[in-house]
Amino acid sequence: MEQHFFNSNGLQLAYLDNGAESDYVLVLMHGLFARATLYKPFMERTKGWRIIAPDLRGHGRSGHSAELTGYDRDSYLQDLEALLEEIGETKYIVLLGHSLSGVTAYQFAAKYPDRITGLIIEDMGHKVSGELTYALKFQQPADTLAALSHSIEQVQNENHFLYYAESAYEAKDGWRLCFDSKGIKQSQDYLNGDYTDTYQKVTCPTLLMRGAHSPILSEEVWEEMKQLRPEVEAEQFDKCGHSIHFEDLDSFSRSVHQFLKKWKT
């Protein structure tokens, strides 16, 4: 996998590219707090597809917006537009979006129905509400990686550090997380809302994925999504919470690969 960079409205953004020569492109978009490298194990298991995995603005190796208004919904959609222009014209494009990026994916698919071949929404609904002030409470910088881990566990009241580990790095002044904490809070504030109309406008084949223990996608909203679009494929993962690709890689890979067989075996 190679690291590349592109520009979106003057902001430098990063993405991973497995370099496969293929007309079949799978775009993997992570959620808040994460980064593209979390998808590396899945990318290594997936053959026959060119896989593109961006670091969202404010995450990983991508730039941080100077203005908090730069984390609104239009900014994320414009970033995806710029990314697709960067990788060039291709015959088939499947978008996979986790959490926040699930909304980005179905918003984009609804807006450009002729450009998107398929859609995978990982643990995100058509109705979104959340509050991420706690992102501002992580101890940064921390003297040691263990101290950073402890601060996360104290804020979250459970062991979440493994999920954040890919974003931890040692800076000159101590250990930090390579995401924009203020931007993450602002991203969630902009994300909150009811996207029922947009979700219903999506026409491409769609796979809905839900962790049975998800604190983000309730069973009620999950059932509504299936009723609003009865033609979608849907799978619930009994062992998982919000991050299926992280918590049960085997089941996640099997499900995604089965869905991709619609276009290429």
- Distance N to C terminus: 22 Å
| Major sheet: arrangement of strands | 1-2-4-3-5-6-11-12
**What's the average pLDDT?**
92
Order of helices and strands: EEEHEHEHEEHHEEHEHEHEHH
CATH fold description: Rossmann fold
CATH architecture: 3-Layer(aba) Sandwich
Would you count the extended β strands for me? 12
Gyration radius from CA atoms, angstroms = 18 Å
What is the domain total for the residues?
A: 1
Shape: globular
Q: What is the H level of CATH, i.e. the homologous superfamily?
A: Alpha/Beta hydrolase fold, catalytic domain
Q: Residue share in helices? A: 25-40%
Q: What class, by secondary structure content?
A: alpha/beta
Low-confidence stretches: none
Describe the protein:
Pfam families: Abhydrolase_6. It comes from Terribacillus saccharophilus. The protein has 10 helices and 12 strands. The protein is α/β, with parallel strands linked by helices. The chain has a single domain, classed as Alpha/Beta hydrolase fold, catalytic domain (Rossmann fold), CATH 3.40.50. Strands 1-2-4-3-5-6-11-12 form an 8-stranded mixed sheet, sandwiched between helices. The longest helix has 15 residues. The chain is globular.
